[in-house]
Specification:
By secondary structure, the chain is α+β, with helices and mostly antiparallel strands. The protein folds into two domains: 2-134, no CATH class; 142-225. It contains four helices and 15 strands. It has helices at 23-34, 98-102, 171-180, 215-225; strands at 2-7, 10-15, 38-46, 52-58, 65-69, 78-89, 92-95, 108-113, 116-121, 129-134, 147-152, 155-160, 164-168, 197-201, 204-209. The strands form two sheets. Strands 1-2-10-9-8-7-6-3-4-5 form a ten-stranded mixed beta sheet. A five-stranded mixed beta sheet has the order 13-12-11-14-15. Helix 3 (171-180) packs antiparallel against helix 4 (215-225). The chain is globular, with a radius of gyration of 19 Å.
Length: 227
Amino acid sequence: MSQTQQTQGTREIKLGNEGRLTQDVIEFNGFWAASPRRVRLVFEVEENTGLWQLLIYDLERVGQSWRVGHYIDGYEGKRTLYDMTLALYYGRYIDDSEEARKYDVTNDVIRESGGVFVINLPDEWRPDVVIRIPALCGASYPLAEPVYIGMVDNRYFALDCAGGIQYFNTLDELEAWIRERECPEGHEYPVIHWWEWHLVRNGEVVYSEYVQPSPEDVVFAIRKYLT
């Protein structure tokens, strides 16, 4: 799932081995696509095994959260290393603690750089832990944001980088969601306004299109390449 190395006292973690679109990569990109204004970030480790998990909670939408890393709830040696409040600030997340606001500090904690999301804990100037995640989202222009559809951890998913991520228990649920994406503005032909969309199977992109599809185009491709 991840590669970890120690560099000058900093623990560096790289997710998405060999370019694979793992659950962690998809989940974090789903968080970035949603772009909540204020979040709580919690980084926990399990001392006996070295496992870790990163939890991000949307502070304005109760119940909305994202998890990256291992599931370590219930482990006896679980310990919280960082518990931070962050704010979205010009396309990146900065420390939003009382101290940072008091001194008007805008230290980056999460940012996109060169096609990679970089998470610095506690921040860019004191990086005890650095997590790097491939950036599927972040084109900066909504109409240019891609869509990824596939299956991960026995669930279908649709990552719309212009809005967020959805999970589905069945293919029927996924296909219904796709049909709901049809533009209602009365085009000559049914169309979904996706300029770039990809199908993912076993962590690999197996099909891509760079043209606006109809709902049935997407459903046909899913049945052909994912089932």
